[in-house]
Amino acid sequence: MQSSLKLKTAASLLELNNVITTDNKLLDKHLHGGIQLQKVTELVGKPGAGKTQLCMKLCLLVQLPAIVGGLAGQALYIDTRQCFDPHRLKELANKIIGDYNLAVHGFRPDQMLQNVRYVECLSAGRLIANIIALKEYLQANPMIKLVIVDSLSFTIRMLTNVIQRTALLVEIHEHFQFLMSSNNISFIEMSQNKQIQPKFLSAIPSKPNNSSTGGNPFETDDEEEEIFSKLKLPLRLPSNFADAHIEHLIVCKNWLLCVLATQEKLTLLRFFLPRAIPPGEVALDKYTSGYKIGKLFLDRTGHHVIISLVPKATGVSADFLYIHCSETPKAQQLKVRRIEKFKDHEITAVAFNTYYGDETTTGTILFGTSRGLIFETELGASIDMPRKQLYDLCQSRITGLEILRVPNSNRWIVVASTPDGIHAFQDVLRPEERSLHSIFSSYGAFAEKQKTDLNYSLLRFFAPPNSKYPKQWAWLSGAGLRTGELSIDIGSTATLLGDTLIKLDFEKGKLLSFDERRTSVVKSFVLTEYHAVLLYADHIKAICLLNQELVYHEVFDESRLGKLQNIERDAFTGTIYVYTDRIVFTLRITREERNIWRIYLDRGQYELATAHAASNADNLQMVLTQRANAAFREGAFEVAANYYAETEESFEAICLKFMALNDKRPIVNYVKKRLTRLTMSEDSTPEAIKSLIIWLIDLYLIQINLPEQSEARRHEWQAEYDEFMREPYVLSCTSQHRNAVQQLITQHADSHNLAQFAISICDFEQVIGQQLKASRYAEALQTLAKQTDLSLYYKYAPKLIEHLPKATVEALMAMGSKLDLEKLVPTLIIMDTADQRKHVIRYLEFAVYKLNSSNEIIHNFLLHLYAQYEPKLLMKYLEIQGRDDTLVHYDIHYALKVCTELDVKDACVFLQCLLCMWTTAVDLALQFDMQLAKETASKPQDTTMRRKLWLRIAYHDIKGTNDVKRALNLLKECDLLRIEDLLPFFSDFEKIDNFKEAICDALKDYNQRIQELQREMAETREQSLNVTKELRTLRTHNVRLQANEVCDICDMTLLVKPFFIFICGHKYHSDCLEKQLVPMLSKDRSRLLSMLKQQLEAVMTQPTTSKAAEPEKDRLDIKAEIENILASDCLYCSHMIETIDQPFVDDWDQVNVEWE
């Protein structure tokens, strides 16, 4: 029987005890399991690569049980660079305990920190002394299994003697070997040497930085440049300064000024760095007799220099020089003068006013003295303003002075520093006010008691290149380096914000020897955006302002490079200059922000970490992942979901995290954001997008239809779901997979959202059908109105009008002319109730009167309804349609048939009139309306027909009544009737006396008409005689032409071509007359003229035969007809007069086209 226990051998446990895991599988693989015991492991990398972080982590990993890769031991950390951070160590301990689940085994962060022993060695002597003392210490503490030296090379490089340095290294490693063999421990030492490629090995190409967040966090690109690198600045010194020493140097706006000293003289040189032009030069010997130069001050333009002179012996007053610099095309001019008004004051600080100064004058500037006095003055080539004392800092030496103005305001700030404090003065000045006197009326001070014998302090500001207002400040004092930011709030009373102290351990310096102390005390420093570059006696260091870690260290070999003097920064360009007494170097800064994101990330300042990591996708992924994890741990699940969606973390793993929560808002947000990313990705697949959309729909519907969900929450989920379904990519996907979506919604029994989905994908037929089955007619009509498929109106309107006649008709009317009226007839014939009939008539009236429909079916239908239900409206309709049978839109015969069947007599009369059925119309009208009959009889245009109709009316009105009065009235109403026409309608025995007056009137009328006819006949006879006489005269009429007669149209000689001459005297060439006359002819005559000319041409081209008389006759006949058309009347006397009322242009459209 096999045991279920997983047993291990003692040999395997022994193997586990020989290594310390690095907590990184890839690194452990390369190190054959981890850090080996009884071996020295050297970590080599550039500053900022993560060596210190790895070592601190190993101090904790060595404490782990052997089963998980540790040794259950302790660690000793020897620090030579002051880089050990206990706060960071505690953070790492918390992380390791969580990763390995060590809390259940009793591990605590404080306990793990107790197992890390720490010793600081700031010199080579102390380092070797501590290594020698390790023998007894390890024997007394056998649990120590790991010793770390951070950093061995850092300490050894401080030794300038190569032989001593080599001997010390050999001695240290001999001690390491002895201690490892006798105590079974491991040594780790760190080096910051640059990696050198062996000559016999080919270079390994660098790989792109595309590693995942699961890789080694301490790995960096070996080919990446260091943040700070030193470059020699080639200054072209004149040949007579080959052996000179640099005593002072200052730079601004690329103007470099340096004081060079030789055995014979002291000279100031002024270089313009961008161009290789001869430097400006001025001798200072005659001004510095008995003095030494204290400091140089240069304004922002690079044209005003102030040199502070300090007496070499007591009893001599301090002094200073002012040098105004200018340039000509040939050379530079440096004018030196002594400022006597400050004769008794040692100038220790100068604040130039960058807002008012220019190349000719400094503007208002401030001087700080060694006795704590602040003066105001102005200097220039020709200006020497009196000094004005502004403030007294009570005998405190002023070490720094700066004038600032808050952007976009008149708030001015003056910052002054002394060895024991910073003083800030501020006030709002008037725009025209130049003096800073009012600023010093009230001030705030940031003071610190001096803790050491450091008798100086430095105040520095950092502003981006070419910016006047700084972002950061730093103050070097007895406690260390204090840093912070400057306020940009116009209304704020605070000026210097923040107070981060970087401890430089000046107190410990008291215990060191003179040489060690000299090299461990900061002489000067400059600020960059994220670092402080510190200058020591023989080296420079760069410290990150955020985590105070050392990122750069450079030792200057005094024997080779000279003695380090100072470090300066060009405020205009941002370039840093480091100089010894022999050489000037520039300190190049390369992407100093590269690791800032990691610092902010470790601090939990995720917004800043995200902003700084945005340019690198891998870094950004690490930030977002850690930020999401932190938010999830804190219970901010929606925030975590938003950040997880931006990471490349496993989709399934994140979903499982959120699915366990009762609140589904985080999972919905996460999936939505991942879906958005997926739709924007070129590598996405339609199937993946479909899966996420279907899942999101399911999640939404669950929340919407949750029984215990409140109405407000349900409404909120519904609104969000509606917005989601309106997204273009969602619409596209759901349209392609409509069956799956419809099936899902149906499973949730959500009829509302099923209808909404059908609307979104334009599948309205199914929705309307379901709504009608459920008798939800109002919803069905609403759905029908939302869609644009007209066929659905024709299909479902008959059903809807049965139940909602008014609303249905209004919906149809809202569609206007889009609907085909003929296809709506099945809907309109549903008139079971009066309400339905009313609204059908309303729609037909809308179609006829508003849409101006000419559809005969619609008009016939409306006419039929009018005839059957609204006879009064029928006559109004007929009158509107008019009495022209060619213009009406209904079928007249059908209308007459309907009206006859329904006995609408007045409409029948109207329609019979349209059909010219006058007799029938009058007979029908006589049956019910005599006046209508008379009106009808008066309508025909034919006089005979009118007379006939009136006779029928007379017969109907008189026959059988013998009413003479009525007959006389008819004679008055119709002028076509005569008394003799009406007499046959009376009886034979009617007395004639009653007609006497009418008969006399008729006889008089006849007599008058006979006389008129006689008169017309006489006039006609006279006109006939006149015409006969004129014709006789015309037979003998002739016209005499002169040889010089011309055509009245072309003004050319008349006799050269065939011509016409008219009795009025006008003469025209035949072709000229034709050209002018043809456009005036009617279409028929013009067509006839063309045909005759073609016939004449055909006759003229016939071959000559023996029977030539017949063609000649035809030719003469055709020619006579042509002449009859062209010369029937004179062009000027007849045709033009007749056409004078015709427009000049008939086809304006053609004219417009031609003009365009």
TrEMBL record:
Entry coiled-coil feature ranges: 996-1030
Mapped CHCR repeat ranges: 812-966
Highest taxon of source: Eukaryota
Domain RecA family profile: start-end pairs: 16-196
Gene3D superfamilies on file: P-loop containing nucleotide triphosphate hydrolases
SUPFAM superfamilies: P-loop containing nucleoside triphosphate hydrolases, RING/U-box
UniProt GO molecular function: ATP binding; ATP-dependent DNA damage sensor activity; DNA binding; protein-macromolecule adaptor activity; zinc ion binding
Example GO BP: vesicle docking involved in exocytosis
Topology class, membrane: Peripheral membrane protein
GO cellular component: HOPS complex; late endosome membrane
InterPro entries with a match to the protein in the record: AAA+_ATPase, Clathrin_H-chain/VPS_repeat, P-loop_NTPase, Pep3/Vps18_beta-prop, Pep3/Vps18_RING_C, Rad51_C, RecA_ATP-bd
Cross-referenced Pfam families: Pep3_Vps18, Rad51, VPS18_RING_C
Keywords noted in UniProt: Coiled coil, Membrane, Metal-binding, Zinc, Zinc-finger
Subcellular localization: Late endosome membrane
Family recorded in the similarity comment: Belongs to the VPS18 family.
Protein name: Vacuolar protein sorting-associated protein 18 homolog
